[in-house]
């Protein structure tokens, strides 16, 4: 039976536009910090500086190895235009072949 207890780290990041999401994801991929990204539009509702906001934004879902957490977050923060970027991360269980591929892409 295949090992199903392999984990990767998934980042969920909000961006102001598609260009920013693509630029940051491309940079992280080129630097070997993430293996891949999914990018898509969303509608966001939040409060900012005391006023309600409804806005079109873009999400990137970034996949990396467990050991790259700090490096990925630091790279996102250094390139992100928001004062308070939304950077959510969680550990996800994946199939062994996918985990192997993620680790190979993000190995130092």
Protein model, in words:
The chain is α+β, with helices and mostly antiparallel strands and 108 residues long. The protein has a single domain (6-106), classed as Alpha-Beta Plaits (2-Layer Sandwich), CATH 3.30.70. It has three helices and four strands; from the N terminus they run βαββαβα. The protein has helices at residues 18-30, 69-79, 96-106; strands at residues 6-15, 36-48, 51-64, 87-94. It has a four-stranded antiparallel beta sheet with strand order 2-3-1-4. The longest helix is centred in the first third of the chain and has 13 residues, at 18-30. It starts with 5 loop residues before the first strand and ends with a helix. The model has no long low-confidence stretch (mean pLDDT 95).
Topology:
Blueprint: E1 6-15, H1 18-30, E2 36-48, E3 51-64, H2 69-79, E4 87-94, H3 96-106
Antiparallel strand pairs: 1-3, 1-4, 2-3
> How large is the radius of gyration?
15 Å
Please indicate the percent range of residues in DSSP E strands (runs of 2 or more): 35-45%
Q: Helix amount, in percent?
A: 25-40%
CATH fold-type name:
Alpha-Beta Plaits
Mean pLDDT score:
95
Task: Summarize this structure briefly.
This protein is α+β, with helices and mostly antiparallel strands and 108 residues long.
């Amino acid at each position: 039976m295949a090992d199903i207890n392999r984990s990767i780290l998934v980042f969920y990041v909000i961006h102001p536009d598609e260009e920013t999401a693509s630029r940051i994801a491309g940079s992280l991929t080129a630097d070997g910090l993430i293996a891949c990204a999914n990018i898509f539009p969303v509608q966001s509702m939040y409060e900012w500086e005391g006023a309600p906001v409804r806005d079109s934004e873009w999400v990137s879902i970034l996949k990396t190895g467990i050991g790259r957490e700090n490096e990925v977050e630091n790279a996102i923060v250094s390139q992100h235009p928001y004062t308070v970027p939304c950077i959510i991360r969680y550990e996800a269980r994946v199939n062994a072949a996918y985990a192997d591929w993620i680790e190979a892409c993000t190995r130092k």
